């Protein structure tokens, strides 16, 4: 059975919040067993919990804010635009990314692909 | 060899313009031979030129305007948010959709998946 739209919406919101402000465990709790991560698209797919833990571990110590800007849901799939701001003292690093996810019956993330490149990152004076 | 970012950007802009204002032939000229279309995601994948021709033929006669709102490129892949407004006399039907595409070496579309559902469509008084 497909997860409800509200359940998918909640997972996406929790994901962006956890990536910005949570721990690696917070993020990994949103993933289904055996989930895959391709970020950015075109790089090798991460397939093990150890690889996911390493990937999200890099950003855990950063001071960030995150916001979902647009979310489109189709059956058990979602594509969403979000903004992640990393606060670096007098500068903010602003990234806007489109993530595409599939979800299992419990609205856990079974795959994630992130669409972005260098040109989607910019530094601005801290707000 | 991967297409350039500029070539991908041009194809995406041409695609949205052709869907809004062009003919079926204009749209199909942007697709690579053997391309697939899943719109919306979760529905059967269209795999033949006849199926693509039928799909885009439905919207050819409509009076529409289209606009790319956000475009993210990663290697030979793109995810973009666009708005398509169908003018229906005194009302406009406004759709916002995220499309994900892959491209061949000539920046022709080799696959398209569209993320949207009923809640991404709304009617407003004609502007």
TrEMBL record, chains A, B:
Record EC number: 5.3.3.1
Coiled-coil ranges (or none): none
Record keywords: Isomerase
UniProt cross-references to InterPro entries, sorted A to Z: NTF2-like_dom_sf, SnoaL-like
GO molecular function, one term: steroid Delta-isomerase activity
SnoaL-like domain ranges (all copies): 12-111
Protein's name in the database: Steroid delta-isomerase
Organism name: Rhodococcus coprophilus
């Amino acid at each position: 059975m497909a997860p409800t739209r509200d359940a998918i919406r909640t997972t996406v919101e929790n994901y962006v919040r956890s990536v910005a402000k949570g721990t690696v465990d917070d993020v990994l709790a949103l993933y289904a067993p055996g989930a895959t991560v391709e970020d950015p698209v075109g790089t090798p797919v991460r397939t093990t919990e150890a690889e996911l833990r390493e990937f999200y571990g890099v950003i855990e110590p950063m001071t960030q804010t995150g916001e979902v800007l647009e979310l489109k849901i189709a059956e058990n799939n979602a594509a969403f635009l979000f903004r992640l701001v990393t606060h670096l003292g007098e500068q903010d690093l602003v990234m806007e990314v489109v993530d595409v996810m599939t979800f299992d019956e419990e609205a856990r993330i079974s795959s994630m692909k992130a669409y972005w490149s260098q040109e989607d990152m910019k530094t601005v004076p801290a707000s």
